[in-house]
Design a protein that fits this description.
This protein is α/β, with parallel strands linked by helices. It is about 35% helix and about 20% strand. The strands form 3 sheets. The protein has a 7-stranded mixed sheet.
Length: about 400
């Protein structure tokens, strides 16, 4: 019996089971490696603009602290539950361990539809969530970071709230904060740039001409937008993008800088062009050279995997492929790269490349001694996403 339920957690359990069986990990040791050390659920009441009080449910899961403090993002989204947060914390542990970072995995979030909050209400919720987490987090215990639905401003509110309770400024309590508050230049762009950088490296290995190549981006948030911009700057035509409001398609290539300016001003791609609107359900199976799923977990299932028409699958999201999809891709691909956020490329065998956020141990176990690493050590930590951002 466990408090962790839901499809995302079941997916993490399935992934762990596959590699645990492959490595012959004793059954009595598996729960110790899989189940989180600590899970916190808190109530976050705030005063709304109309004078009423609403209580939101918040979570934080710390997977393990064996290697050092835990580290991980905080998402504000309607889908958030304890099982999803636990799975994301587990994946973060795997990603940190894979590259030798002295962190355990953590994740947090609040179940909320941000479209229903004003800016003042968002600040109240952010500060209340951090206030409730103060007994459980700290620079040497658990460091928070942005994730879906949170950004530099939310991190600044987190840092300010924690610092007020400590009686001094504690910049190291969060990563992803504004540069003016002690953040790092380039942090916002890091994960998306990493996706684009490694996609380009893979394309060179496959002798794909960048200037005649196409890309499709599913998800146009922080990661997807900068991945699109990077690929655009490398010469690729980004023919389609999507976000939670819809999708856009242009066979000759979208104007990515203009689209990023529009999304920055309006919060989404909605309203950019009525002529370019496209069915979001079809975006993952569009013919292209590079496909970047950079939105939610579990968007590529077995049916979608069977119908992928890309040469390079560059995963920018956490866990975008289901275990069933992994089996399909295993049969279809010759080369695999799968190490959390884009960090390294492992050469194996074939026509379809995968790189990105999934169970790193799966690659190590499946391919093991065949793998020859292709990586740029200067880009590895900078492009690591929410496990390797600077402060």
């Amino acid at each position: 019996m466990t408090v962790y339920t839901g499809p995302v957690f079941e997916m993490a359990v399935n992934q762990f089971g596959v590699i645990a069986h492959h490595l012959s990990i004793p059954m009595d040791e598996r729960d110790r490696l899989l189940l989180p050390k600590r899970a916190i659920t808190v109530s976050c009441p705030i005063h709304r603009d109309d004078g009423t009080i609403t209580v939101f449910e918040g979570y934080r899961v710390q997977h393990h602290l064996t290697l050092g403090p835990t580290k991980g993002g905080t998402r504000f989204a309607p889908s958030v539950d304890i099982g999803e947060v636990a799975a994301l914390a587990i994946w973060m542990s795997w990603k940190c361990a894979l590259v030798g970072l002295p962190y355990g995995g953590a994740k947090g979030g609040v179940r909320v539809d941000l479209a229903t909050l004003s800016r003042r209400e968002l600040e109240s919720l952010s500060r209340r969530y951090m206030q409730e987490m103060i007994p459980f987090v700290g620079p040497h215990t658990d460091v928070m970071a942005p994730d879906m639905g949170t950004n530099e401003q939310v991190m600044a509110w987190f840092m300010d709230t924690y610092s007020m309770y400590q009686g001094r400024t504690v910049t190291e309590i969060v990563t992803g904060k504004p540069v003016a508050s002690g953040g790092t230049l380039g942090r916002r762009e890091a994960t998306g740039r990493g996706v684009a950088h490694l996609a380009r490296r893979v394309m060179k290995e496959l002798a794909i001409d960048l200037n005649n190549a196409t890309a499709v981006i599913q998800g146009f948030g922080n990661v997807g937008s900068y991945a699109a911009l990077g690929l655009h700057q490398f010469g690729l035509k980004v023919i389609a993008v999507s976000d939670h409001t819809g999708a856009l398609y242009e066979a000759t290539g979208l104007d990515i800088p203009a689209l990023m300016r529009h999304a920055g001003e309006h919060g989404s791609i909605a309203g950019f062009s009525s002529q370019l609107q496209f069915d979001p359900a079809q975006i993952l199976t569009l013919p292209c050279d590079v496909l970047v799923p950079a939105a939610m977990e579990r968007v590529i299932d077995a049916r979608v995997a069977e119908n992928l028409k890309c040469r390079v699958l560059a995963e920018g999201a956490n866990g975008p492929t289901t275990p069933d999809a992994d089996l399909v891709l295993e049969k279809r691909q010759d080369e695999i790269s799968n190490s959390g956020h884009p960090l390294q490329l492992r050469w194996c065998r074939g026509q379809l490349f995968r790189m990105g956020a999934g169970p790193a141990a799966t690659v190590l176990g499946r391919r093991g001694s065949d793998a020859a690493r292709i990586s740029d050590p200067r880009s590895r930590l900078r492009s690591y996403g929410d496990a390797g951002e600077g402060r």
